[in-house]
């Protein structure tokens, strides 16, 4: 029997990202830059960018997960790596879909440290085992999460074969 999962629909994501943006606005934090952790953080960063009226979005490509609850030993930042000169002195908001182990968020937050005026993290979900406690969290869960952008197989698989939709 499979474990129960957290299900997030596109409509639910819209409400979640708006509530997350309201938390950030209510805290008084005004980011100059939103730094998305690709891939799941791209959706979150885009939604927060619109809601918080921040047009300056950057991307950190980090590889860690290889499947459901399968990951590399350590997360690695893939090229193109953000240029710290572009982040220098800015108030940065790191956006991701989930803080699971927190290793990815820690990698990106540590990358920013010492270069930025301030850095905070915003996620849709945070899990109890995360080593990073995010400043802004929509929900806490210990379940695996089915996000609307990753719940169906790809249209084209990496090897070039058509997916089963």
UniProtKB/TrEMBL annotation:
<feature type="domain" description="Phosphoribosyltransferase">
    <location>
        <begin position="10"/>
        <end position="150"/>
    </location>
</feature>
<dbReference type="InterPro" id="IPR029057">
    <property type="entry name" value="PRTase-like"/>
</dbReference>
<keyword id="KW-0808">Transferase</keyword>
<dbReference type="Pfam" id="PF00156">
    <property type="entry name" value="Pribosyltran"/>
</dbReference>
<protein>
    <submittedName>
        <fullName>Phosphoribosyltransferase</fullName>
    </submittedName>
</protein>
<dbReference type="GO" id="GO:0016757">
    <property type="term" value="F:glycosyltransferase activity"/>
</dbReference>
<dbReference type="InterPro" id="IPR000836">
    <property type="entry name" value="PRTase_dom"/>
</dbReference>
<keyword id="KW-0328">Glycosyltransferase</keyword>
């Amino acid at each position: 029997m499979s474990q129960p999962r957290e299900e997030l629909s596109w409509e639910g994501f819209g409400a979640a990202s708006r509530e997350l943006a309201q938390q950030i606005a209510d805290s008084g934090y005004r980011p100059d830059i939103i730094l998305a952790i690709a891939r799941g953080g791209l959706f979150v960063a885009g939604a927060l960018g619109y809601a918080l009226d921040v047009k300056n979005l950057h991307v950190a490509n980090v590889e860690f997960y290889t499947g459901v609850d399968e990951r590399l030993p350590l997360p690695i930042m893939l090229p193109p790596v953000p240029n710290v000169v572009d982040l220098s002195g800015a108030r940065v908001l790191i956006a991701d879909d989930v803080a699971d182990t927190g290793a990815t968020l820690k990698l990106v937050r540590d990358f920013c440290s010492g270069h930025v005026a301030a850095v905070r993290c915003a996620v849709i979900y945070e899990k109890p085992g995360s080593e990073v406690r995010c400043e802004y969290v929509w929900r806490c869960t210990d379940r695996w999460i089915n996000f609307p952008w990753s719940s169906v197989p790809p249209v084209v698989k990496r090897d070039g074969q058509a997916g089963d939709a």
